[in-house]
Structures are given as C-alpha cells and as structure tokens.
Write a structure and sequence with these properties.
Blueprint lengths: L13 H17 L9 H18 L6 H6 L5 E3 L6 H15 L4 H12 L3 H16 L2 E2 L4 H30 L4 H19 L4 H17 L9 H5 L10 H12 L9
Antiparallel strand pairs: 1-2
Helix pairs in contact: 1-2, 1-8, 4-8, 4-9, 5-7, 6-7, 7-8
C-alpha cells in the first residue's frame, strides 16, 4: 500500500496525520519479510526487528509479553483473503472519519457509525477469529503461537471497541477531539492487525474493498444485489474470483457490512 494518506490531508491536525503515518509505516515495515521462508530464525528476527525499529522511532512500546517472546511465530500458510475484506471496510471508514472536520462531515460519520450495531461489531470479531483460526503455523513453540494468536485478536478486538466508543461519542455530539481519538485507535489497531498478514493478501482485500465502494452507486454504504451485479458506464465488472468472494461473504450475512 502507498503512503500518500497524509499528503491528502494537509489541513488536518498533527495527531490525525501521525496515526495515518503510523498505520502506513507499520504495514510497510512488517511486510518487508512477511512471506513465509523456510528458516524460522530468519523470519522471526527480520520481521520483528523491522517492526521494533519503526515503533522505537515513534516512541511506542510493545507489550512486555512480546519483548519476552523475542520473535514472532513462524507461519507456514495463511488462509484466503476473503475474511479480510470486511475488515478493510472498517479501516476505510476510519480513514474517511479521520478527514471529517466540518459539522456536515461529522453528521455523515454519525450516520455511518450509527448503522454499526454491537451485533455487527461482533460479526467483525468473528471474521478475525475465523481468519486467525485458519492460520497454519510451523513454529515448534506453542507459547509463541498462543501469543501470536492472542496479539492478532487483541488488535482486532480493540479496533471494534474503538468503533463502538466512536459511535457513542458521535451519538452524544461530543467534541470532535474525542471522536478523533477513537478514530485513531481504530486505525492503529487495524494497521497492526494487517501488518502481520501477507502484503499480497492485504492488497487483494484493499483492491476488492475499493471496487465494492465504487459499486455503491446510491452511496448508502450498503451493497445491494443489483449494485453488486451492475456495471456502470466506463466501469469494470468484478472478476469471477472477486464475485465468488462477495457471494461467500453475503451468504454468511456480510452483505450489509462490506462497506460500512
């Protein structure tokens, strides 16, 4: 993914620009060696060193457990990117929310966040759990694997908790600063989750999510059957692979949660 988010937000506060920079840097740094390689020591050390280097420059500390673990778990195979598409939709929502400054912008965000119920947030947590559960590890240390799984889920869970808090802040029409604090938490936590997946899968989820947003012609942030199958003039239809992914997600109840 490119690092042009902050360039698109020249008038935003330093805090907002910083969290997008952090999200981007985390993704890029951890993806330097995100693909599985046969040597466990090389993979764990190189990926962890790259992330630690970025975090140290930003004065952000990893949990003590991560420091004690000393390396990341070795992954043999990741599951298909299907489950990542709804999560990238939430990440995209946070990106849009970070640019909200006027009262009209906040009103739109109030509507979008207001549509996400606690049940919806649990559904996002479910796809996180499903994705993590399907990761095939090649690490001999079960404690390292357990920490890896817990760290991935915590990032996702904390992001969804921040979505709930952001929704509540907007409902109370609290100060914009309070809302942006929660938006920052959404972005940083999902960035840390995405930082631990193959960059190719992140790119696939990003590309498909953006295609689905383009298909939302009435801009109600809900993808109808007609919108999913209709191609506007000058547009490109979904590939068969992308259509299969969308159909699979819709069948398990994510039709209204693909582009929150």
């Amino acid at each position: 993914p490119g690092c042009n988010w902050t360039a698109m937000m020249p008038g935003k506060t330093r805090a907002i620009r910083n969290w997008f920079s952090l999200a981007c840097v985390l993704l890029l740094a951890s993806h330097v060696n995100v693909a599985w390689v046969a040597s466990p020591n090389n993979v764990g050390r190189s990926r962890r060193e790259s992330v630690l280097q970025v975090l140290s420059t930003l004065s952000i500390a990893l949990p003590a457990e991560a420091e004690d673990t000393r390396r990341l778990a070795v992954v043999e195979m990741y599951p298909p990117f299907t489950s990542l598409v709804p999560l990238f939709g939430v990440f995209s929502l946070a990106q849009s929310a970070a640019q909200a400054s006027s009262s009209d912008d906040l009103a739109k965000m109030r509507q979008r966040f207001g549509k996400l119920s606690d049940t919806d947030l649990d559904a996002y947590r479910f796809v996180c759990t499903q994705y993590i559960g399907l990761i095939r590890y090649a690490d001999p240390d079960e404690k390292v694997i357990s920490f890896d799984k817990a760290a991935r889920f915590k990032a996702c869970d904390d992001a969804m908790a921040a979505v709930r808090r952001a929704r509540e802040v907007l409902a109370k029409e609290a100060e914009k600063v309070a809302f942006q604090k929660e938006v920052s938490s959404i972005g940083v936590n999902l960035a840390s989750f995405f930082a631990l997946i193959p960059k190719e899968d992140f790119k696939k989820a990003q590309d498909l999510s953006q295609k689905l947003q383009a298909l939302d012609t009435d801009k109600d942030y809900r993808l109808s059957d007609e919108e999913a199958k209709t191609v506007r003039s000058g547009g490109q239809p979904l590939s068969q692979e992308d259509s299969d992914v969308v159909d699979a997600l819709r069948k398990v109840g994510f039709g209204d949660l693909l582009i929150p």
